[in-house]
Design brief:
About 45% of the residues lie in helices and about 15% in strands. α4 links the parallel β3 and β4. The chain starts with 19 loop residues before the first helix and ends with a helix. The mean pLDDT is about 90. The chain has seven helices and five strands, in the order αββααβαβααβα. About 40% of the residues are buried. With about 180 residues, the protein is of the alpha/beta class. Strands 2-1-3-4-5 form a five-stranded mixed beta sheet, with helices on both faces. The chain binds zinc ion. Zinc ion binds next to α2 and α4.
Length: about 180
């Protein structure tokens, strides 16, 4: 976990989104978290929470297990550490598009922006109907559209898609 900033970084000038350079940097870091999770025997998914300044990493989390995905665990931890108004200006970065459970957790956690590297449907192409990853193929935008608040979604990101896909291709092919 990154060093805890004090005071908390506030919204920079306005609530504009991150730059492409910031997106690439944070997704690469999330992919490192995914590899760390894999090294401890978990599936290679990683997520980070970035402050409204688009620079400060507040939390990071790898996959735990089938019902404790990186994003859901991270969001639950975030809601115990930060207030909802602050979280609304934060960004969740995740290597792969969040599943329906994680998108809903983000919704209830009030994190206002999402950036993902690889789409869920692309992941499904890589894993196939893998018994350890029976993909719930619902686009996260569909989940958010049913809600009452406008969560900004950015992704997939072409610049890092292949790096993330490579991690999954190696992992799921070896675990068939
Ligand atoms: Zn999930």
């Amino acid at each position: 976990m990154a060093e805890f900033p004090n005071p908390l970084p506030k919204v920079s000038i306005d609530s504009e989104g991150p730059t492409l350079a910031q997106i690439i940097r944070h997704l690469r870091y999330a992919n490192q978290i995914a590899l760390r999770a894999q090294s401890f025997g978990h599936h290679p998914f990683g997520a980070t929470l970035v402050a409204p300044d688009h620079e400060t990493t507040l939390l990071s989390q790898g996959n735990v297990d089938t019902v404790n995905h990186a994003e859901s665990v991270l969001i639950r931890s975030a809601t115990t550490n930060f207030g909802p108004d602050y979280l609304w200006d934060c960004t969740l970065y995740t290597t792969v598009e969040p599943c329906a459970m994680c998108a809903a957790t983000q919704y209830w956690g009030n994190v206002g922006r999402l950036v993902y590297g690889l789409s869920e449907s692309r992941l499904l192409e890589l894993t196939g109907n893998h018994p350890e990853n029976p993909t719930l193929d619902v686009p996260c935008r569909e989940i958010f559209q049913r809600g009452q608040k406008a969560i900004a979604v950015i992704g997939p990101i072409a610049e890092v898609e292949m790096e993330i896909a490579n991690v999954h291709q190696a992992f799921w092919q070896n675990s068939h």
